[in-house]
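Possible regression after last week's pipeline update?

I re-ran a chain I had predicted before the update to compare outputs. Posting the input and the new output here so someone can diff against the archived version. Not blocking, just want to make sure nothing changed silently.
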Amino acid sequence: MIEIFDRKGFDRLVTLEATTLQGADLSGRQLGNANLVEMDLRGADLRGSTLAGADLRLANLDGADLRGADLSDVELSGCRLDGVQAAGVVLTGVKLNRAQRQALKAGGADPAQLPLDIPVKRG
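New output (post-update):
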């Protein structure tokens, strides 16, 4: 069983009868302010989900379906987004690095909705 809590760790947002979030059906779920740090969400279905304010630092969303999801004010530092489907995704207030921006654009996100690139620190 997997439980997803808010960023503060007090409120349970979702309980799933699963052993992994990889490929999970989270479509249409209310996951605002969720703590998803370092979660493996490869191939997850997040269509139409509300993730506003969620913490997705270092999460792996490769191949996830984000179509129509609300990712407003989401923390994506170090988050992988290769191969996502992103048509209609809402990204208000999100900071993206160049690779994340390119992955979202390739996945169908509206270029006008994509924030400007932030520099990636090397070293």
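Follow-up from reviewer: compared with the archived run. The mean pLDDT is 91. Marking as no regression found.
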